[in-house]
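2024-03-11 09:14:02 INFO worker-7 job=invfold-0412 stage=load source=structure_tokens
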């Protein structure tokens, strides 16, 4: 019997990341990553999240599966996998988890672009473990050519890492890609203070026929994710996110 791809991916993650590190080291890494996201956001732009084995393992083992589950649910809820897509472009793909969820649902290839070379190589492993076709490359998402019809563009938990000028140039480019037929999904944390630019983006998406949503999902967490969650003093029994979605202009 073949295992579901999600379980196979989690097994691969655990085998690799827990080969060198103990559970306690990953838990410590998770607490450091979580503190960067919540209290020390200023250091994120310098790539501090991926400095050190513990933080890398925590991101891959904990945030990757959580982002995968959240994007899977959002894509299903807004109907973003129908009709099927030829490719998903995952901008700031991290370890590839979020774009992989959309690509699996839509029967698409996945292309990740990621500033961190370590995360891009981890994304390649994610795609392989999930039997997805595609590739992940190290680069700046702002330099990427954006596709149109038949493709999707995902920005998962990354727009808030960009500076105001970069966000300002990215927004019209995303709207223009949607006018050429691309489906565009932006996902961010629910905490409003982390996304002061949200109102402006939401208005722009709505003006072009898009939607903005706040999500609360209760999803059973994979066992290791649930253990790390408890051990690090976090609480992700209910998954939350906010999203903006443009379905792509249809002629
Ligand atoms: C919070 S992580 C989210 C990763 C992934 N999207 C996910 O959902 O798991 C944000 C990622 O965006 C990447 N990133 C930030 N600015 C970027 C840029 N200008 N170009 C490419 N990647 C970028 C960071 O290196 C990091 O991996």
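2024-03-11 09:14:09 INFO worker-7 stage=emit residues=251
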């Amino acid at each position: 019997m073949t295992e579901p791809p999600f379980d196979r991916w989690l097994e691969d993650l655990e085998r690799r990341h827990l080969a060198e590190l103990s559970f306690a080291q990953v838990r410590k890494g998770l607490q450091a990553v979580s503190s960067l996201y919540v209290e020390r956001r200023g250091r994120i732009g310098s790539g501090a999240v991926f400095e050190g084995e513990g933080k890398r393992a925590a991101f891959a083992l904990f945030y990757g599966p959580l982002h995968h589950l959240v994007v899977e649910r959002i894509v299903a809820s807004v109907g973003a996998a129908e009709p099927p897509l030829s490719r998903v472009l995952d901008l700031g793909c991290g370890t590839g988890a979020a774009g992989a969820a959309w690509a699996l649902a839509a029967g698409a290839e996945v292309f990740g672009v990621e500033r961190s070379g370590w995360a891009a190589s981890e994304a390649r492993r994610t795609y392989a473990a999930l039997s997805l076709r595609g590739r992940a490359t190290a680069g700046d998402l702002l330099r990427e050519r954006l596709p149109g019809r038949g493709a999707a563009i995902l920005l998962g938990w990354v727009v808030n890492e960009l500076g105001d000028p970069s966000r300002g140039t990215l927004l019209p480019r995303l709207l223009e890609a949607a006018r050429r037929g691309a489906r565009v999904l932006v996902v961010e944390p629910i905490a409003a203070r982390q996304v002061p630019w949200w109102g402006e983006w939401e208005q722009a998406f709505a003006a072009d026929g898009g939607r903005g949503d706040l999500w609360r999902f209760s999803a059973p967490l994979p066992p290791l994710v649930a253990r790390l969650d408890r051990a690090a003093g976090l609480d992700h029994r209910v998954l939350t996110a906010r999203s903006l979605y443009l379905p792509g202009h249809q002629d």
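2024-03-11 09:14:09 INFO worker-7 stage=report msg="The pocket of S-adenosylmethionine is lined by residues 63-64, 67, 92-94, 97-98, 113-116, 119, 140-142, 156-158, 161 (CB under 6 Å)."
2024-03-11 09:14:10 INFO worker-7 job finished
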